[in-house]
Design goal:
By secondary structure, the protein is mainly alpha-helical. It has 2 domains: 1-190, MFS general substrate transporter like domains (Growth Hormone, Chain: A, Up-down Bundle), CATH 1.20.1250; 192-388, Up-down Bundle (Growth Hormone, Chain: A). The chain has 16 helices and no strands. The protein has helices spanning 5-24, 27-39, 43-71, 74-93, 97-114, 117-125, 131-158, 161-182, 195-204, 206-232, 239-250, 257-264, 266-286, 291-319, 324-353, 355-380. Helix 1 (5-24) packs antiparallel against helix 8, helix 7 packs antiparallel against helix 8 and helix 10 (206-232) runs antiparallel to helix 14 (291-319). The chain starts with a helix and ends in an 8-residue tail after the last helix. It is a multi-pass membrane protein. The chain crosses the membrane at residues 45-64, 76-94, 100-122, 134-158, 164-182, 203-225, 237-260, 267-286, 292-315, 327-346, 358-379. Keywords: Cell membrane, Membrane, Transmembrane, Transmembrane helix. GO terms for molecular function: transmembrane transporter activity.
């Protein structure tokens, strides 16, 4: 069976994004207990390394555009694969905090390198009707990565945390080879000159950027405190990798994001995702001691999280198809800054507020964001179409 251009690029992109986002980005938190016990690092050092992963991701986002401008959009996806593989190998072999930090930051940067360039690759190599589906498939690769990460977490629990990182290194190499084989090399994108071009780009992205602030803040709060909620609720240790696997499995529904956006409009899909993530946060806050409630929360969150990522790619590509990568990168940078600020704010109010109320408050913000998007769409008549 011969795959179409959209199918080949979607498959390669899903593999690369799945390893970079679904595995390398979240592996540090899952393997943290083993790293702490093996290397004997303090909480402050471990926290600094965790924060540095966001710096690596942001650096990858900002550098990917420059590399793509010189060598075409496939170049940063290759660079991201190399960073993911090299970082995972360094972490696997680390015996002290310095190489551990270098490896974790390199692995964390992979997501920044690889995700946005696929918007340019798809808009330049895939027929317009196939683009929303290809972008959704690429983003949904994160779900497969999370499922594999859940399996590696079990391996780490019965063996060593180093085995999990070795598995990520192997997966990163395999994904990079698939990417080079299936994704065509294209030239550098034409440069948009002048302030008017930048101003029009920013004007087009006001609503997706506002969505990114709320969406990424809610998502990072969920991922930051989910394991803590399960631990406080007295659930077994296996509940954490099961939670990640459930998020990955239910997130597979995001492959339909392109078709859903065509029918309902990207803005309405984005609002639905914010409402879904808010509901998942509320379930986690109110039922953290219940296996049924946490399982339901993970399933609801998986669908909202993955569809929320996919619709952002579809949305920005529809709004600015001639500069899809730059548009997506701009929203991801906004989201990265929100991802840094949200945990800091949550950590500041947590002692006085408590974990449950903090999650409920975040859920309320997410639900209010959904309502605001729907009101804006109703006022502007933004119904159908992926780009409106």
């Amino acid at each position: 069976m011969t795959l179409s251009a959209g199918g080949r690029i979607g498959l390669a992109g899903a593999a690369v994004v799945g390893v970079a986002f679904g595995m390398a980005r979240y592996a540090y938190g899952l393997t943290l207990p083993g790293i702490r016990a093996d290397l004997g690092l303090s909480e402050s050092v471990l926290g600094l390394i965790a924060g540095a992963t966001f710096a690596g991701y942001l650096a990858g986002l900002l550098l990917a555009g420059r590399l793509a401008a010189r060598h075409g959009p496939r170049a940063p996806t290759t660079a991201g694969g190399v960073c993911g593989a090299a970082g995972a190998v360094i972490v696997t072999l680390a015996r002290s905090p310095e190489p551990l930090a270098v490896g974790v930051v390199l692995a964390g940067s992979a997501g920044g390198w690889v995700w946005a360039p696929y918007s340019d690759i798809v808009t330049r190599s895939v027929p317009s009707r196939q683009r929303p589906r290809a972008l959704a498939v690429i983003t949904t690769g994160t779900s497969g990565g999370l499922v594999l990460l859940g399996g590696l977490a079990v391996l780490a629990a019965v063996g060593s945390w180093r085995q999990a990182w070795a598995g990520i290194a192997i997966a990163a190499v395999a994904a990079a080879l698939v990417n080079v084989r299936l994704v065509p090399r294209t030239g550098a994108a034409p440069h948009r000159k002048g302030r008017s071009g930048t101003a029009s780009l920013l004007a087009a992205l006001r609503v997706p950027a506002a969505y990114s602030v709320v969406y990424f803040a809610a998502v990072v709060v969920y991922f930051t405190y989910a394991a803590d909620v399960l631990d406080r609720g007295g659930l077994p240790a296996a509940a954490v990798p099961a939670l990640y696997a459930a998020i990955g499995l239910t997130g597979m529904v995001a492959v339909a994001t392109g078709a859903l956006a065509r029918r309902a409009g990207s803005l309405r899909v984005a609002a639905l995702c914010l409402a879904t993530v808010g509901a998942a946060l509320a379930l986690l806050a109110l039922g953290g001691d219940s296996v049924v409630a946490t399982a339901a929360s993970a399933c609801v969150f998986g669908a909202g999280y993955m569809t929320g990522s996919a619709v952002l790619a579809v949305w920005t590509a529809g709004l600015v198809p001639e500069h899809a990568g730059a548009a997506f990168t701009a929203c991801l940078v906004v989201g990265a800054l929100s991802s840094v600020g949200a945990p800091a704010l949550a950590g500041a109010v947590l002692p006085g507020l408590g974990l449950g109320p903090l999650l409920v408050a975040t859920a309320a913000v997410s639900l209010l964001g959904a309502a605001a998007l729907l009101l804006y769409g109703a006022a502007r008549g933004a119904g159908g179409g992926t780009g409106r």
